[in-house]
Specification:
Elements: E1 2-5, H1 13-26, E2 33-36, H2 82-87, H3 91-95, H4 111-120, E3 124-128, H5 133-141, E4 149-155, H6 199-202, H7 205-212, E5 218-221, H8 223-226, H9 233-240, H10 246-260, H11 267-270, H12 275-286, E6 299-308, E7 368-370, E8 377-385, H13 398-407, E9 441-447, H14 451-462, E10 468-475, H15 486-495, E11 503-505, H16 537-541, H17 581-591, E12 598-602, H18 607-614, H19 617-620, E13 623-629, H20 654-658, H21 660-667, E14 673-676, H22 678-682, H23 687-695, H24 701-719, H25 727-731, H26 734-740, H27 743-746, E15 749-757, E16 769-771, E17 777-784, H28 787-799, H29 810-816
Parallel strand pairs: 1-2, 3-4, 4-5, 5-8, 9-10, 9-12, 10-11, 12-13, 13-14, 14-17
Antiparallel strand pairs: 6-7, 6-8, 15-16, 15-17
GO molecular function, one term: hydrolase activity, hydrolyzing N-glycosyl compounds
Family: Belongs to the IUNH family.
InterPro entries: Inosine/uridine_hydrolase_dom, Ribo_hydro-like
Length: about 800
């Protein structure tokens, strides 16, 4: 058995891989190989290089892992979407035990490596319960191994299905407008453009076509069947009373929080048995040999001739939507010039081609369409769930009973959860006692959770509270890391004994990038430049494989919510709700003594700060000044910026580019601003120098952690081309040092410049800073400092034994929880 992770749909690769490792550890199955990602690409001539990571649909895949979110933008990024899946609503870290297996850069087996090794070993059955990119790439790259794949079981698609959600009640008034009611598909964010597709097939329709038309026998469990097995109230109540194993408890917790946070009161008619139903059907079919008709206990089956729609008629057009054909003399993969793949391909959420005024959307990308004749293939399809053979049971479907029986079996049950993993486990918050101390300058740190930001945070926490009083942290998921990485911020604060510091979560989209109709989804116009794999989100979300070495904090992101904050209902623990960035800022303002103000240090895109500026004078009057680590002042068109993967944008700095409108709002405001631009950051970005200085200092837990992280970044930069930009993160430490630095030691000098930020919506110029003596905003710009003194100040502060870590690492925490408390 092996597992590969679909990295271009509902979850982020870094969070997913560690969650799978922890689930396997709970179940005592560390023997199961797990693959994710890969750094290979597809060349313009359609050559598929080894280890393509599956981060992008095949139609968007180039030679690296950055790229546009053509299909994925239909998936919510925050609540109810990838944030909640990445964290499993907050239960992942509170419940699952932590074993020794974890993601590590360049050591993690890739999806293709695991597939090739597993399928090469002999006859294999494949379950697909996500997008089909990984497996389609395997089939295209390894045709000689196709013979080893005996059968493919797929959850997804909708053949004759009619969506039961979004319908008007029978007794409703004429004002009720049906939404996706009756559609074949289930893409609730996109039904006005595409009412035909189901998420798994839509995420990479070309990949799904390759799988369905591979010639390998396929059994499909589509929406046709899953729509007939909604989670019922009786099933929920029975499940609540039957949690005899750790896995049953974990599954029920997940189901309950999904219900409690559901956006309306129709959970029991809108939430279905999806992937688990497919697994049950497949297991039942496989128990019988030569079961060509797919006889099983749980679903009625039927052979249907289907295909997967990958483009929209008319075929043979060239409208800029289809990279397989547009601008090419020979179609990619030798596709037929006027064939089924040659039409318009949906480009984005609200593709104008797809929208019909006062009508149903006309795009069908990802539609599992029933066809007659040679254009389709016969597929064994589950058409409806079977009723429970026990007529007296509270459970109306046969699969419900089996699901609960299997989940609660003692055989092969989970070994422990996080709390029972340790004989003397105890959760405790570490908060300092500042009584009798005169606290220093009030500071709020705004970070995008890059590697450099975590080092800057450690530095801020090491500064004497009499000098710097770090009152709060706001995190911006519009930069280098996904929103669920906020857990690593909580863990670092716990390590340093600062569980008193509130952490606010910012918007998941750059300004004007969320969808105006459905704000939970939106565009990736700017953060598409961040690689999905190595050197990008995969590494930031795992802190380059070191996040799990931090001690585990009792605080973490949770999906718990409250009516007080606009939720449809209170969950079990509304007090654990994750506060938003603007709420944390408001609480900081209210906590200030009369006449006191706050300095904001911001290390990422300026999304959160722009929101504060737009909130009005009541929110900005408390700001003393803002130190912005970012921006690039180009002198004479000679100094290039650092925006990766957009060659046409030569002079912008990444923090400005990732949200140019926010940068324009902040840097044209009336606030006092100090800019620490790219030029001066580059002067203090030498790995050998800073590591040499750290090696000469005393070993504190924070020095050890920072050395491990910086050494890893340096090694990766030397080892693999995907990591050439690692010195970006060294420059991000500078703001924290300058904030509290002694000017006489650092010998820092400043100049005043009148600047403007470009936010034109043209990616070739967005985020660029120009000097405008007449209309520009006057800001202080850090021009120079003694870089050797800077390294000394940084290293000496980290090695200071004052305000050092309370719990130095997860290993130390593990030892504490393995011995009785004194």
């Amino acid at each position: 058995m092996a597992i590969t992770i679909s990295a271009n749909a509902w979850t982020s690769a870094g969070h997913a891989i560690n969650q799978v490792y922890d689930m396997l550890y709970m179940m005592g199955r560390d023997d199961i190989a797990v693959g994710v990602g890969g750094e290979g690409g597809i060349l313009p001539n359609a050559t598929i290089l080894p280890d393509v990571g599956g981060y992008l649909p095949i139609i968007e895949q180039g030679n690296d892992t950055s790229g546009y979110c053509r299909y994925r933008q239909t998936i919510p990024m925050g609540l109810g979407g990838r944030l909640d899946i990445d964290s499993n609503y907050g239960f992942r870290k509170s419940f699952l035990p932590q074993g020794k297996r974890q993601y590590s850069p360049l050591r993690q087996p890739t999806a293709q490596q695991v597939m090739i090794k597993t399928i090469s070993s002999g006859p294999t059955v494949v379950f697909l319960i996500g997008s089909h990119t990984n497996f389609a790439l395997f089939l295209l790259s390894n045709p000689h191994l196709k013979k080893n794949v005996e059968h493919i079981y797929i959850m997804g698609g909708g053949v004759r299905s009619q969506n039961p959600t979004g319908c008007c009640p029978k007794n409703s008034t004429s004002s009720c407008q049906p939404q996706q009611c009756g559609d074949h598909g289930n893409i609730f964010t996109n039904y006005t453009s595409n009412p035909y597709a189901e998420f798994n097939f839509f995420m990479d329709s070309f990949a799904s076509y390759q799988v369905i038309h591979s010639g390998i026998p396929v059994t499909l469990v589509p929406l046709d069947a899953t729509n007939t097995i909604p989670i019922t109230e009786k099933f929920f109540e029975t499940f609540e009373k039957n949690q005899l194993t750790y896995e049953a408890r974990y599954c029920f917790k997940s189901l309950k929080i999904a219900r409690d946070t559901w956006f309306d009161d129709q959970f029991y008619t809108s939430y279905f048995m999806w992937d688990s139903f497919m697994s049950g059907i497949a297991a039942s079919i496989m128990r019988k040999q030569h079961n060509h008709q797919g006889e099983n206990e749980f679903a009625e089956m039927e052979y249907i001739n289907i295909t997967v729609v990958t483009s929209n008629m008319p075929y043979g057009i060239s409208d800029g939507s289809n990279p397989f054909f547009d601008g090419r003399t020979t179609p990619k993969f030798n596709l037929e010039r006027n064939g089924v793949h040659s039409g318009h391909v949906q480009t984005k959420l609200r593709d104008p081609f797809c929208i019909v005024k006062n009508g149903r959307g006309r795009c069908q990308d990802g539609y599992t369409k029933e066809v007659a004749g040679p254009g389709g293939v016969p597929v064994l399809v589950a058409v409806r769930a079977k009723p429970n053979r026990n007529a007296s049971s509270l459970l109306d479907k046969e699969f419900f009973a089996s699901f609960l029986d299997v989940l609660n079996q003692r055989e092969n049950a989970g070994i422990f959860n996080f709390s029972t993993q340790f004989p003397y486990f105890r959760e405790e918050l570490h908060k300092p006692d500042f009584r009798g101390k005169h606290l220093g300058k009030n500071v709020v740190f705004d970070m995008d959770m890059s590697a450099g930001d975590f080092i800057a945070l450690i530095y801020l926490l090491k500064l004497p509270v009499e000098e710097i009083n770090l009152k709060a942290i706001t995190v911006s998921p519009t930069g280098w890391a996904n929103a669920a990485t906020i857990d690593s911020v909580y863990d670092l604060l716990h390590m340093m004994g600062r569980d008193d510091i509130p952490v606010g979560l910012g918007d998941v989209f750059a300004m004007n990038q969320s969808d105006p109709i459905f704000s939970a989804v939106g565009d990736c116009k700017y953060n598409k430049v961040i690689p999905q794999g190595s050197g990008g989100f995969l590494d930031s979300d795992t802190l380059y494989g070191l996040s799990r070495s931090l001690p585990r904090s009792p605080r973490r992101y949770t999906a718990e919510n409250s009516v007080k904050f606009g939720a449809p209902r209170d969950t079990d623990h509304p007090e654990l709700r994750q506060p938003l960035a603007l709420e944390v800022w408001e609480s900081v303002v209210k906590s200030l003594d009369p006449g006191s103000k706050v300095t904001i240090l911001t290390n990422g895109p300026l999304t959160n700060i722009a929101k504060i500026v737009l909130a009005g004078k009541n929110m900005t009057n408390a700001i003393q000044d803002i130190i912005v680590v970012g921006g690039h002042i180009n002198h004479g068109n000679t100094d290039k910026g650092n925006v990766i993967n957009i060659p046409s944008n030569r002079f912008a700095e990444l923090n400005m580019f990732l949200d140019p409108l926010a940068a324009k709002i902040v840097l044209s405001s009336e606030l006092n601003i100090t800019l620490i631009p790219l030029g001066i950051q580059r002067k203090v970005s030498a790995f050998p120098t800073i590591l040499k200085r750290l090696h000469l200092t005393r070993k504190t837990p924070e020095t050890i952690f920072v050395k491990r992280l910086l050494s890893r970044l340096q090694h990766l930069q030397k080892t693999h081309p995907r990591y050439q930009h690692m010195d970006i993160f060294l420059g991000e430490i500078l703001g924290a040092v300058v904030l509290a630095g002694d000017y006489s030691v650092l010998k820092s000098t400043y100049d005043v410049e009148n600047i403007k930020v470009t936010a034109s919506r043209y990616e070739s110029e967005d985020g660029q800073i120009t000097i405008d003596e007449k209309q520009g905003k006057s800001v202080e710009v850090l021009e120079n400092l003694d870089h050797l003194a800077y390294y000394d100040v940084f290293a000496n502060r980290l090695s200071d034994e004052k305000q050092s870590a309370v719990v130095g690492s997860f290993d130390e925490q593990r030892r504490l929880w393995s011995t009785p408390s004194k």
